[in-house]
Structures are given as structure tokens and as C-alpha cells.
Amino acid sequence: MPIISRGFRGRRRDDVPSDRVPPGQYVTPDFPVLSAGPTPHTPLDLWDFTIVGEVDELHRWTWEEFRALPSETFTVDIHCVTKWSKLDTVWEGVSIDTLLDGVETSAEYAVAFCDGGYTTNLPLEDLTDGKAWIAFGYDGMPLEPEHGGPARLLVPHLYFWKSAKWVRGLRLAATDEPGFWESNGYHLYGDPWKEQRYWGD
Amino acid sequence: MEGTAVLGRLIWRAAEVAELWLETSSVKTLVLEVAGWPGHRAGQHVDVRLTAEDGYQAQRSYSIASAANGSRVELTVERLDDGEVSPYLTEEARPGDVIELRGPIGGFFVWDPAPGGAVLLVGGGSGIVPLMAMARQRAVDGDRVPTRMLYSARAWDDVIYRDELERLGGDGLDVVYTLTREQPPDWTGYGRRVDSDLLDEVAPADLALTFVCGPTPFVEAVAEALVGLGHDPSRIKTERFGPTGG
To answer: What pTM did the predictor assign?
Structure first.
């Protein structure tokens, strides 16, 4: 039983559909920024995206090649482990299915790696079947550096730290290797609907 | 990476308000007595949960302000007018009230007593809170790591922990202020927003590790300027809070 905090009423929002807000989250109209270090600024002519690890061969796209891939505009809700959720965010990106098309692998897990050294781990099946993208546009504009531009991973059904900013590639593997926050106290999987915030949740 | 901060399941614990005091007109410190508190490292944060009589709940994260001290945990909370939890903590809560708390959380933005050189702590507004925990832990441990704290506030009346920072100075810790909006008449510190030139003057020559905490634009500007000055991005640790969070 939770303890009642005397005199607490809260600021309930009647305009928010409760089936879209996971437990412990609140809805914000803002787009807060969280990251562990300085924002990297990689010039686009030096940018590439690679799929490495347990694959038949290295797969690599330059920025131009990546942007020439079929992309889609999609609207999703995002949920940050620091408690804010933002509904109906509009992104443009390339589906991971498109990038994995033609990649032969027996891997079941992936680690996204990024400029600045950030990593995050996910089961490969959470990246496929239309569940994840490499996003380069937000709200009709190029994705700003502080929000992960030029491109970030977007996996909206998991806590937002899984949607790695400044992503540069995926390393596929047979085993689940904890990434940056997953090694620093945060949950290995991170399902917001099960409130999997921290180790042991 | 450091991976030792949190072990096992983080459970919700009852936290009784033992004491509280005003730090500035909009900032209050709450001393909480938390039975079973496992201890923490300076720089870590906690989740706070409030429950209304009808079961409605709200959660927010707050940095821990205090050095490790048994079952006592101090939070310093800035009141956000459109907030949900911070107005309760800063205005409604009084000694004897019980809230819920779980933590400590975060194994990255934490004090390192052996950084291999000097440490720079850069705080903007209430971003000073986790840095204060570091300064306090350093003092408790008798650490002599050369440490410089750069504290940016709007005005002298907005500076949190003023008297204690004065006492903590010495033993290799010095505090540099910049007041961005309003300076007292005899002010000898900086009087502008933190920029590259200011950081170049303030950063210790043998800087090995920097912690930056504050609102996003502040953290972006400081981290960017430090990288521009040639400091290793992997030795700059940041913690940001957005326009909401309260």
C-alpha cells in the first residue's frame, strides 16, 4: 500500500487519455533534453551508418545513401525514464526493417552505437516489424543536434534512453550486452508499461 | 563505465520530513529520514512519489543534495509554478509528513575522488544541487582533489548554500560566482553568462574531469565551450533538466 502524502492533491489532467500514459509518467508539451555528455557535431560528409557484428558482411551507408532510402513519416508517443511522456510526436525516418533488408544474421540482440560513445542494447525483435526507425526529422524539420541530430534511433515502445541520439550503427550479437545506462543502474529492457526503470524492476 | 551504483531492486521507502528550511525565495531544502536507506554516492538522484487520498500518484526525480549520512537524505527543491510535485514539497510539506522515495539512482554523474587531476563543477541555478553533494562529500572524506566550482545564478539572492559554500572553501576547493542579471554594488565576481572566455579563465590548468548541471541551454553552452577549448568530451559529464520537471 502506498503511503498517503497529507495534503497532496496533484494536478490531474482530464485532457490526457490515461491508456496512453504509462504508470508513473506525466505528459509534457515540452521536449526536455537528457544526455550524459557534450553534444557531438559530426559533419554529414563524415557521417555513415553501419551494421556490424554477427552479419554476413559489413553494411554501410553514407549520409547521401541513407537519405536516398525510402523513409516514412510517423506519429508516436514517447516516454522518458525521468517521468515525462510526450504524445503525438511526429518524426521522419528510415525503418530498421529497410536497413536490415538483405542483412543475413543469426543474432538475437543489437547494440546501437553513437557519436560520443553512447551505447544501448535491445533485442533485435524490438527493432523489427515496423517498431523502430533511424529518425532524421522531427516535427517537419531536420532533427536538431541536442535532440540527437543528424540521426537518432527511435524505439518508442521502450523508455526513451533506448532511442539513442547521434546513432551511427548497430552491432548485432548472439547475446545481450548492457549498454551505457544499462550498466549504470537502468533496466536491461525498459518497458514503460511495466515500469522497468531500474535494475530489478 | 562505473556500474556499481545500484544493486538489486530499488524499493519505495517511507521518507519522513525531519526538517526543512528556505534556501532562497523559491528553493527549499528538505531533510528526510529514510529507514533502510542503503547510502548513496554524491551526484546521484532519487525518485519521489506522492499519493493523494484517492490513490492518485505523481512521481518526479530530484538530485540528492547531501553527502552520505546514514539514513538522512537531503533534497533541495526549486518551486516550479506550473509544477505538480515541487509546489507540494516547497509549500505544503512540514516536519512529520511522510513521502515515498526510491534510490539512489544513476551511476555516471557521480563524484570521483581520484580523477587524475583537478575537477571543475559548473552549476547553473538549481543545477548546483548535485554539485553541492560532491563538494560536501569531498569535505566529509577529507579529499584534497583540487576542485573549482563555477556557480552561475541570476542574482546574489538566488545563490543557494551561500554561507556553507563560504565555509567549504579552502582545502583545495574554491568557488567562483557569476551573477547574470543583477550584481551587488561592490561585486567583484563575474557578471555575465558563462562563455568560452570565462571558462578558459576559470578552468584549472590540469583539469581532468568536469561535471556540468543546469538547464539544457546552460549545459549545452558550457559543454560546447569546454570542448571548443580542447577539453576531452569523454571527461565532461552532464546532467540537464528541461523546462518542465516539477
So the answer is: 0.94
